[in-house]
Design goal:
65% of the residues lie in helices and 0% in strands. It has 227 residues and is an all-alpha fold.
Length: 227
C-alpha cells in the first residue's frame, strides 16, 4: 500500500474528540500534526499492513508528516519477527521519533529472543545524546533486563545517562522505580547514596511509593530518603 493511501486510511479513522484529548498529552507534537486515531485502530491497521507485506514503502518514507504515521510505524516495527531486519528498522526510525508515546509504544517482541545482541545496541542508544533514543534504550533495559537477566551494571549505565531533558529524566525515574520493585537490594544503594540528581531521585521515589509492588515498609523508608 502506498504511503498516500495509508494516510488516507488514517484520516478515514479520525475521531475529532479523541484528537483534542490526544494532542494535550503530547506537548512536543504540534496540534496540526495529530489526526486523532485511537490506538486499537492503529494496532489493527499495523497488523493488516504487516501480514499483507504492504508496509515496506511506508517504512522507508521518513520523516513522516503526522503523529499517527509515526505510531503506525512503531507498531509495524514491533511486529517484525526477524531480529536483524527489526533492528535495522528501529535504528533507521529512532532519529525521527519526536514524542514519548511513539518511543514508549515501540516494543519489538523479537528482542526477547536476542538479548545479548540487543545489549550492544542499548549501549549505543544510551550514549547517543538524543532524547528519545536514550529514552528508548532505558526502556529496553527496563523491559528486558530487570528480571532473570538483571545485572547491577545496567543500573550504573542508566544512572550515568544525562537526564536534563524532561523525557529522559522521567524515564530514568521510571526505570529506578521499577528496579526498586524488582531488584530492591541492588537498587536501594543508588537511592541511599543519592546517585541520581535531586529531581530524578525524588521522582523515582514518588513513582516507587505509588507502586503496588512496593511494600508499605519499603515505601515508608523511601520517603525518608527524599532530597
Amino acid at each position: 500500500m502506498k504511503t498516500e493511501e495509508i494516510r488516507e486510511r488514517l484520516f478515514s479513522l479520525q475521531d475529532e474528540g479523541y484528537r483534542e484529548f490526544q494532542a494535550k498529552l503530547m506537548p512536543t507534537v504540534p496540534f496540526e500534526k495529530v489526526i486523532g486515531v485511537r490506538t486499537p485502530a492503529l494496532r489493527e491497521f499495523a497488523k493488516e499492513l504487516y501480514k499483507a507485506g504492504e508496509a515496506y514503502e511506508f517504512l522507508s518514507s521518513l520523516p513522516h508528516e503526522y503523529f499517527e504515521e509515526n505510531q503506525l510505524h512503531a507498531f509495524i516495527v514491533s511486529l517484525e519477527k526477524d531480529y536483524s531486519r527489526c533492528m535495522a528498522l528501529v535504528s533507521a526510525f529512532l532519529p525521527y521519533v519526536d514524542n514519548w508515546a511513539t518511543c514508549d509504544q515501540m516494543s519489538p517482541k523479537v528482542f526477547k529472543k536476542h538479548k545479548q545482541e540487543l545489549l550492544s545496541c542499548v549501549e549505543k542508544w544510551l550514549s547517543s545524546g538524543e532524547c528519545y533514543t536514550a529514552r528508548f534504550g532505558i526502556k529496553m533495559l527496563m523491559e528486558h533486563f530487570l528480571d532473570a537477566d538483571f545485572d547491577v551494571a545496567y543500573l550504573e549505565a542508566v544512572a550515568a545517562v544525562p537526564d536534563e531533558e524532561y523525557y529522559v529524566h522521567m524515564m530514568v525515574a521510571w526505570y529506578f522505580a521499577t528496579a526498586l520493585a524488582k531488584q530492591w537490594d541492588a537498587t536501594l544503594p543508588f537511592i541511599e547514596g543519592r546517585r541520581l540528581r535531586p529531581a530524578t531521585h525524588n521522582k523515582a521515589i514518588q513513582k516507587a511509593v505509588e507502586s503496588y509492588r512496593i511494600t508499605p515498609e519499603q515505601k515508608a523508608y523511601l520517603k525518608t530518603l527524599k532530597m
